[in-house]
Amino acid sequence: MRFRALSKAITTPSLSNAISAIALMVMAFAVPPAARSQDQPPKPKKPVRASAFFQSEQPLDVTFTTNIRRLRMDKGATAPWRAATFSYLGADQKPVVVPIRVRTRGIWRLKSCAFPPVRLNFAGASTTGTVFEGLDKPKLVNHCQDHENYEQYLLQELQLYRVYRLLTPVSHAARLLRVTYADSATGRATATRFAFMMEDLAVVAARAGGKGIEHKGAGPGDLDPHHDALAGVFQYMIGNTDYSVAGLHNVELVQLPDGNTLQVAYDFDFSGAVNARYATTDPSLPIKRVRERLFRGYCVDKDVFTKVFTLFNAKKDDIYALYRDDIGKLLAPRTVNETLKYFDEFYRTINDPRESKREILDECHRRS
Questions:
Q1: pLDDT tens digit sequence for 64-100
Q2: Disulfide check for 309: which of 14, 102, 122, 350 has CB 3.0–4.6 Å away?
Q3: Are 145 and 168 a contacting pair, CB within 8 Å?
Q4: What phi and psi, each to the nearest 5 degrees, are found at residue 220?
């Protein structure tokens, strides 16, 4: 792949440490590769498998217990892992308590939300026989503020993950939770709100037959054209401009054995479909409101866009049905109506040759 070269600065605490480090490096490279491999054979990697947890869309009631005050203070980019537990009622109605570790993550939400977004760390042995068996380090997307409006934003964002899953398996599965947040320091529950858990990228990549990579600088020549167009049109559909493929901002990459790369979109709370009160657009863009659509995808052949538009049309009824099922019914009726009207505008655009050319094909050419 043609990515920008990255440089790394190496610092050492002292001259003696530096000399020791260099000596160790020299000794390591002085040993023939064959000898090193005989002395320390590489450990075989365990195959990545999808967890049964995400095969169900049934919301799960859980209690998340940790030192909430201490977690809220973890604002740095390299926050430590903290002790926590997830508990739920088993089939026999007895509590099942699973020890985990948790740490804060994110950028905007980490700085702005009363409860920070977190990543969970499940130890394999402790999950055996529980509903969390097979999970590794999934993200937990939780409410930003303890208020009904913010809970609705979260449910709206979950719906967009579900829409994306209908369009491509190269996307994150997500499952809804009803979480009671308990403070281990006080023993008191602080809130009960909806949240959702997301699949690890490694599972998404394995499903596509590839592996996740973290390289910035991906351009149109690096990406599979069909999936590139699909992801770009999906972002346009939901009115999301808060992403960058080259910058790996709210985008992950999966590299296939043939060298092609697939993008995986995530984090949709700044999209027009969610229309959160805190969402803003980048000042450098020619739009002022998140409800205004702007195609920011790379250019591909017109025939590829035509096939992608056909896919969206084929999935339209299934997409709209998500807003009438049990999870969709958790949204306020007014929100459902506004969202489907917003999607109606998208479908009018892609089914009008002049509009789709002006809004998508021509827009991508201006950015090429």
A1: 999 999 999 898 778 999 999 999 999 999 999 999 9
A2: 350
A3: no
A4: -60, -30
pTM of the model: 0.86
pLDDT at 201: 96
Residue 89 token pair: 């009622």
User: How large a percentage of the chain has pLDDT more than 70?
Assistant: 86
Residues with Cβ within 8 Å of 170's Cβ and at least 6 positions away in sequence, in order, are: 204, 207, 208, 227, 254, 262, 264
Exposed, middle or buried: residue 160 (CB in 10 Å: 0-12, 13-18, 19+)?
buried
What fold does the segment set 209-367 form as a domain? 1.10.1070
| CA torsion angle 325 328 331 334 (round to 10) | -80
pLDDT in tens, 9-24: 333 333 333 323 322 3
Query: H helices of 80-147, where?
Result: 108-112, 124-127
Give residue for tokens 């993200």.
139
Report the 10 Å Cβ neighbour count for 19.
11
From CA 329, how far away is CA 175, in angstroms rounded?
16
Question: Under the phi-then-psi rule, with left for phi > 0, alpha for psi from -120 to 50, and beta for the rest, what region is 269?
Answer: alpha
Listed as own residue / partner, the contacts of 182-191 with beta carbons closer than 8 Å and 24 or more positions apart are 182/63, 182/64, 182/65, 183/65, 183/66, 183/67, 183/68, 183/69, 184/65, 184/66, 184/67, 184/68, 184/83, 184/84, 185/67, 185/68, 185/69, 185/70, 189/63, 190/68, 190/146, 191/115, 191/143, 191/146
- What is the three-class DSSP state of 200? coil
CA distances from residue 228 to 12, 245, 251, 259, 302 in whole angstroms, order as listed: 42, 10, 12, 14, 13
Which neighbouring-strand residues pair with 33?
none
Amino acid at 184: S
Number of H helices, E strands in the chain: 13, 10
Contacts of 17 (CB under 8 A, 6+ apart): none
> What DSSP string runs through 329-345?
GGS-HHHHHHHHHHHHH
Domain with CATH 1.10.1070 in the chain: 209-367
Q: Which amino acid is at 210?
A: G
